[in-house]
């Protein structure tokens, strides 16, 4: 797990890659921790095409919910 603390008005997206660079995943056996996670899941704030392209090199599998319609008109009924 990794944490970066920023001011409240700062955007989350610019901090994503530095945050992922700090992650280390412990191996089952001996050896250095892995720096590349198997999977990264993110909310739709990180679904912009530029973010997806940048993060595809960091994680084996990258998944973020796509941005869709908002508000009451987005209801399925």
UniProtKB/TrEMBL annotation:
Source organism superkingdom: Bacteria
Region annotated Disordered, chain positions: 1-40
Biased composition (Basic and acidic residues): 24-40
Low complexity composition-biased segments: 12-22
Name of the protein in its database record: DDE family transposase
Originating organism: Promicromonospora citrea
């Amino acid at each position: 797990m990794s944490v970066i603390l920023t001011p409240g008005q700062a955007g989350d997206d610019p901090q994503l890659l530095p945050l992922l660079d700090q992650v280390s995943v412990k191996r089952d056996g001996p050896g250095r921790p892995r720096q590349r996670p198997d999977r990264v899941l993110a909310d739709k704030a990180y679904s912009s095409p530029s973010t997806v392209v940048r993060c595809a090199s960091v994680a084996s599998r990258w998944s973020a919910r796509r941005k869709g319609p908002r508000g009451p008109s987005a209801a399925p009924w």
